[in-house]
Design goal:
- The chain has 319 residues and is an alpha/beta fold.
- The protein contains 11 helices and 12 strands.
- The strands form 3 sheets. It has a 6-stranded parallel β-sheet with strand order 9-8-10-11-7-12. A 4-stranded antiparallel β-sheet has the order 1-2-4-3.
- The chain is elongated.
């Protein structure tokens, strides 16, 4: 519940939290979240006995009130605030976007905690994966394309519906030439696959990741290693697919086996292929348009859930 009283352009707002636990989560450790909000909006904030009071210019107080109300919705939905929630909500409110979690969101349980889509676009993405055998997700960096796909893959394998996760990536350098890399073939390709290991490690203990890989329940490999294979009972994710050629995309998509689900992710604004080589992710949009069982999900800058600066950076480069 909040009360606002105005005096010229200076206003004061008061919000009563429902419980000490809710206040503790909202305020953050040692009032960390309050300090962030104070610094961003330039208002005076006082928190005492579960009551949040703040005072400042009308527009700043109004935005802060929207941020606080959105954060409270997240707390009441999930019981917590993730590390990036406050940055994401502040960025969205600043652009006039309601960041409340979609009511029709689908929860993916990892380590007993829900991984919940934070935007309407992400909710559509998870629904598409659940309802189709082949899904293409295209969007800018930071929209959760890989993270949500890996989360759903782990949940699906845990349920016993599918027996294996295969994560693939084209071994294409992003505008640099690394030259000769020492070691065996695995050592040479590991730098390209590191983001997939990181995505897994963010969800399950590293020891469990190693165990799954050793037992062949999870396989992480360069796209070139997919040739000639047929994968059954598998959840397959092709990451950074904008760096596939059309021929590589065809080779990959024909790996479909029985009870196989495939998710292809990429950002067509960040193609690192040689000049004149058409991206397979761009090519496939026309080839498979309208095919039953195939869905294309397009995420936008509104779906970026990394640090709020990521969206500003994407905007700057797009402009």
């Amino acid at each position: 519940m909040s009360e606002v009283s105005a005096n010229s352009t200076i206003v004061e707002n008061k919000i009563q939290l429902e419980s000490d636990q809710e206040a503790s989560v909202l305020f953050g450790n040692h009032d960390k979240n309050l300090r962030i909000m104070r610094d961003v909006f330039g208002v005076k904030i006082v928190a005492r006995n579960g009551v949040l009071k703040y005072k400042g210019e009308f527009d700043r107080v109004k935005k802060l009130t929207d941020v606080v109300n959105s954060l409270i919705k997240i707390i009441r939905k999930t019981g917590k605030l993730d590390n990036d929630d406050i940055d994401i909500v502040i960025a969205d409110i600043d652009r006039g976007i309601d960041h409340s979690i979609p009511e029709r969101s689908i929860e993916v349980l990892i380590k007993g905690q829900p991984v919940t889509p934070k935007t309407e676009g992400q909710a559509r993405y998870i629904n598409a994966i659940r309802n189709n055998d082949l899904v293409f997700c295209i969007g800018p960096a930071g929209t959760g394309k890989t993270y949500l796909a890996v989360s759903l893959a782990l949940s699906t394998m845990k349920s016993g519906y599918l027996k294996k996760i295969v994560l693939a990536r084209p071994a294409v350098e992003a505008g640099e030439r690394l030259g000769f890399l020492p070691g065996d073939i695995q050592a040479k390709v590991n730098p390209y696959l590191r983001p997939l290991y990181d995505a897994l490690a963010a969800m399950i203990e590293i020891g469990l990741v190693k165990k799954y890989i050793e037992n062949d329940l999870i396989e992480i490999l360069p796209l070139a290693f997919m040739r000639g294979r047929t994968l059954n009972d598998s959840f397959i994710i092709l990451d950074e697919a904008q760096n596939c050629t059309a021929k590589q995309m065809k080779t990959f998509l024909t790996r479909f086996g029985i009870r196989t689900k495939v998710v292809v992710t990429g950002d067509i604004t960040q193609v690192d292929l040689p000049t004149g080589e058409k991206s397979g992710l761009i090519d496939v949009q026309e080839r498979l348009k309208g095919v039953s069982g195939v869905d294309f999900v397009y995420l936008t800058r509104k779906d970026i859930v990394r640090h709020r600066l990521v969206r500003d950076i994407v905007d700057a480069y797009d402009n």
